Amino acid sequence: MGGVSGAARAAVAVVAWLCALGVLALVLVAALVDLGTAERLASVAGAATGLVGLVLAVNDLRSSDTEPPPDDALIAQEVAAYAEQVLQSHGPLGLKAPDPSQNGEHSEVELLAVFVPPRLRADPPPVELPRELRKRLESRSGMLPPGEFPPGLDEESLEQVRRAYRERRPVESLEVLTDPQQSRVVLLGDPGAGKSTLARYLALALTSEAVPEPLAGLAGRVPVIVELRRYADERRRDRSFEDYLDELSTLERMSVPRGVQDVLLREGRAIVVFDGLDELFDPRVRAETERRIAAFAGRYPDVRIVVTSRVIGYRRPVLDKAGFRHYMIQDLTMSQIEEFAERWYTVVCPGEPELAARLHLLLERAVADAHPGPRWLATQLLARYWPEREDVRLLTLDRMTADPSSTNRRNALNWAAWLGEAAPDTQETVRSVALADASPRVRITALRVLAFGWPRSPATTGFLRERAERDEDERARAVASWALTTADAYAALPDHAS
């Protein structure tokens, strides 16, 4: 942009102020030599007036030479560049689809090609319940014998929860996100339910050349994702969200430049997703981040804001008071699973419709009783559909321990929980990863997988207890403590199979 740079303007201002102070000092010294002389006093007054004029002129120079706001052409240019980076970063699902006909691999599956939007249930009760128990309460015969109540809950409390689930029917997630009356939304969900996947889909769909019809009401809004785990790092947590987005733009092109960002936020032409509130394990940091999100929403009343979090550990009061509506992400229905499977095998088996149809049917049977979030469906295509195959077992174990990509190691850990009895050495390998992997994120993923994969295993609970007490990493200790509590809660459920 034209004009003097900010650093040059600052230097001019400093020099001008120093000169003015120096001249004023000289004038005052001269005046003290002969205070009785009227002419001297007049000269002091004249000099002071001149100095005031000089200072005002410098201030005028600083204010008049600032960069003008970006015009529509520049905004469009920067948004287009950002959209390219979004496609590169969020486009691939993160999995290479196996080729059933050749026992090989295809290229990455694209998220936009297979995504099926989940449904939501409005205003879930502010009671933390494991997924299995919620499913029982939602069913028609969801009664629990008195001895099976979770600690701290009684029949009256559970009846309130049961009524809440039955009275609030599921709604389409994209309808909620485009509803003009719901510009503040919190999406709650279990691990693997699709919270981050939905955030990525939003970013991809709204930066595409042709916005999908269900999201047409958001066309023209620029989506940005704030990964709260990264934002709350000790090096960044004292910065504003605006500064953090500016840093993302500068270092990764995963946002727009500050000038463009300011216009989009001020004019309500953005949708900001704060992803992963549950990943802030320090309660003080999490509470402070909630307050900052509420303040951010207050600064930009026309910006649509979405917050995602797991159910366990989430506290509603702060965002409730800020006007946020709460929704629970629901498991995919059988019709949605069928749609996902059809899309998946259309990509995996191009030009082979008969094979795609046969595998489609087998996949439906394999995942009908599994945890059917969109991300989990994709990862289960290996571990859930072919768990007995030796190459799948070896691939999973190899990727979780030796793959150079920490993302691939984390994906393999998520697969591992579904191998079960087909891979009896898996649990031990996951524990070794949680203990020794070089990436803190991989170690933390391994701790979570242990909690959900083997909650009744004495080896798992003993390991988690030891990590909660002795791990050198403070965050890992916090996650291990959380995982131990979660494993105990899941293990206490009746008819739970580890």
List keywords for this structure.
498 residues, disordered N terminus, Leucine-rich Repeat Variant, single chain, 7-stranded mixed beta sheet, Rossmann fold, alpha/beta, 22 helices, globular, 3 domains
Provide structural commentary:
- By secondary structure, the chain is of the alpha/beta class.
- It folds into 3 domains: about 5-65; about 90-330, Rossmann fold (3-Layer(aba) Sandwich); about 335-490, Leucine-rich Repeat Variant (Alpha Horseshoe), CATH 1.25.10.
- It has 22 helices and 9 strands.
- It has helices at about 5-35, 40-65, 70-90, 110-115, 130-140, 155-165, 175-180, 195-205, 230, 240-250, 260-265, 285-300, 315-320, 335-350, 355-365, 375-385, 390-400, 405-415, 425-435, 440-455, 460-470, 475-490, and strands at about 90-100, 105-110, 120, 170, 185-190, 220-225, 270-275, 305-310, 325-330.
- The strands form 2 sheets. Strands 4-3-9-5-8-7-6 form a 7-stranded mixed sheet, with helices on both faces. A two-stranded antiparallel sheet has the order 1-2.
- Strand 1 (about 90-100) and strand 2 (about 105-110) form a beta hairpin.
